[in-house]
TrEMBL record:
Sn-glycerol 3-phosphate binds at T13, R83, E84, Y135, D255. GO terms for biological process: glycerol catabolic process; glycerol-3-phosphate metabolic process. Signal peptide: none annotated. Keywords: ATP-binding, Glycerol metabolism, Kinase, Nucleotide-binding, Transferase. Residues 5-262 form the Carbohydrate kinase FGGY N-terminal domain. Key enzyme in the regulation of glycerol uptake and metabolism. Catalyzes the phosphorylation of glycerol to yield sn-glycerol 3-phosphate. The gene is glpK. The lineage of its organism: Archaea, Methanobacteriati, Methanobacteriota, Stenosarchaea group, Halobacteria. It comes from the Archaea. Its EC number is 2.7.1.30. It is an enzyme of class 2 (transferase). Glycerol binds at R83, E84, Y135, D255, Q256. It catalyses: glycerol + ATP = sn-glycerol 3-phosphate + ADP + H(+). This is Glycerol kinase. Belongs to the FGGY kinase family.
Length: 512
């Protein structure tokens, strides 16, 4: 197998990447292209699906060319994608009926508030594991069905989108489905992406009739739901298409579940945290869908062919890496890499706490009117103290989620696998170990979302024999053990909780 590879399409919010992995899980080639962010109105965010598909073809062919690898050397392709982003397209022409509505889009907030006013929150939560929110796909699909322009057919009168959807002629999908459709011609999604639509019962593992009726989304337009790693595959590329070869598409994941899989968190109690603009902390809870009473989401972690679904608890933290970007914006630092040396230059924050609630607080607080604050400053406070306090805020927010996970599941996180740009900072990793009282484990390959989707596809076609092969591939770059006394960590965290309390409900009507 030395001359064959597995490819991963990593379709994200700002761009698309294609990566080639060899049998040892090493990156052989990578290519990336950004796409436009469209903001037609305040709070609205859209992507052009045709641009995403064109960029996908470009990065695949570029990476293969750069590595001098031909398409027939690809054993399989896996897909990972920005979750919840929603589009509809015409089954006959394959053309979108409207731009995709991005997960960040808030145009359906009023519709979600209607769900709350009608006391339907518990119905949604009990079936989907999700808090009703404009973040998820259901209200986006409803909006598109109600607002997209009628399709003009050459052979007939203009026909209403909803009418055609009920006939199965308009198709719904998240970005994974859109790419699978263009690659193979099949209308398919995987269990992890389905679980983020707010239309899918994660206990019955099927589209839910009551939810489809509530959001007026016809069942006929929904994709077939398949395992994340599918031995039957989702189909193959066309030998006469852009690749010029038949390559199986055999795995798909929402991006955070892909990172869970790429970090080889296959067993109950395994956990990972991805430190990006925000952070996403996932804990594998095994075959039990643990219902959260502490502000977390219950979601599908992954499923392999013929095996039970593995569930996860998820804590979404809105601002972590973005807090470092803020330090650059206000001139405290010129580059994120400076934070480590600046934080080490002082012994402590000197009592300063920074709560980076720039867009409210996510899990486990869920307070949209919280705002960022810096408290505890004196005349002796310097920018180094604030830089250190900003790094500490990342560690404290992660502990907030870990505590909620333990309260919900009874599982204590003793080891946390980490990835994302911020984990290159050794000071932050050691601080995270100290505040959490757990080992922090950083892998050699940090492109864990792409790696996870490659693993899923490769397992499905036998490129890797078992998850044991993947565990063997996974290599530790560095492990950080807690060195702070637990009493000291608790004291610091309790003071953080006091600071969070002061940030809550600050914004009034109009955002002031």
């Amino acid at each position: 197998m030395t001359d064959t590879y597995v490819g991963a399409i990593d379709q994200g919010t700002t761009g698309t990447r294609f990566m080639l992995f060899d049998h040892d899980g090493r990156v052989v080639a990578s290519a990336y292209e950004k796409h436009e962010q469209n903001y037609p109105e305040p709070g609205w965010v859209e992507h052009d699906p045709l641009e995403i598909w064109e960029n996908t073809q470009n990065v695949v062919t570029t990476a293969l060319s750069d590595a001098t690898v031909s398409a027939d050397q690809l054993e399989a392709i896996g897909i990972t994608n920005q979750r919840e982003t929603t589009l509809l397209w015409d089954k006959d022409s394959g053309r979108p009926v409207h731009n995709a509505i991005v997960w960040q889009d808030r145009r359906t907030t009023d519709r979600v508030e209607q769900i709350e006013d009608e006391d339907k929150v518990e119905m949604v939560r009990s079936k989907t594991g999700l808090e009703p929110d404009a973040y998820f796909s259901a209200t986006k699909a409803e909006w598109l069905l109600d607002n997209a322009d009628p399709i003009k057919l050459q052979r007939a009168r203009p026909q209403d989108i909803r009418e055609r959807a009920e006939e199965g002629e308009i198709l719904f999908g998240t970005i994974d489905s859109w790419l699978i459709y263009n690659l193979t011609g099949e209308h398919i999604t995987d269990v992890t992406n389905a679980s983020r639509t707010m239309l899918f019962d994660i206990h019955e593992m099927d589209w839910d009739a009551e939810l489809c009726e509530e959001f007026d989304v016809p069942r006929e337009m929904l994709p077939e739901v398949r395992p994340s790693s599918d031995d039957e595959t989702y189909g193959s590329t066309d030998s006469e298409g852009f690749l010029g070869a038949e390559v199986p598409v055999a795995g798909a994941f929402g991006d955070q579940q892909a990172a869970l899989f790429g970090q080889t968190c296959f067993d109950e109690g395994d956990a990972k945290n991805t430190y990006g603009t925000g952070s996403f902390f996932l804990l594998n809870t095994g075959e039990e869908a643990v219902e959260s009473e502490h502000g977390l989401l219950t979601t599908v972690g992954f499923q392999r062919s013929g095996q039970p679904v593995q569930y996860a608890l998820e804590g979404s933290i809105f601002v972590t890496g973005a807090a470092i970007e803020w330090l650059v914006d206000v001139g405290f630092i010129d580059d994120a890499a400076e934070t480590e040396s600046m934080a080490r230059s002082v012994d402590s924050t000197d009592g300063v706490y920074m709560v980076p609630a720039f867009t409210g607080l996510g899990a486990p607080h869920w307070n949209q009117r919280a705002r960022g604050i810096v408290v505890g400053m004196t005349r002796g406070t310097r920018k180094e103290h604030i830089v250190r306090a900003t790094l500490e805020s990342i560690a404290y927010q992660t502990r907030d989620v870990a505590d909620a996970m333990e309260a919900d599941s009874g599982i204590e996180v003793e080891s946390l696998k980490v990835d994302g740009g911020a984990v290159k900072n050794n000071f932050l990793c050691q601080l995270q170990a100290d505040i959490l009282g757990a080992d922090i484990v950083r892998p050699v390959v940090d492109e864990t979302t792409a790696l996870g989707s490659a693993y899923a596809a490769g397992l499905a076609v036998g490129y890797w024999d078992s998850v044991d092969d993947l565990r063997d591939n996974w290599q530790v770059d560095r492990e950080f053990e807690a060195s702070m006394a637990s009493e000291e960590a608790d004291r610091k965290h309790e003071r953080w909780v006091d600071a969070v309390e002061r940030s809550l409900d600050w914004a009034q009507e109009g955002g002031g």
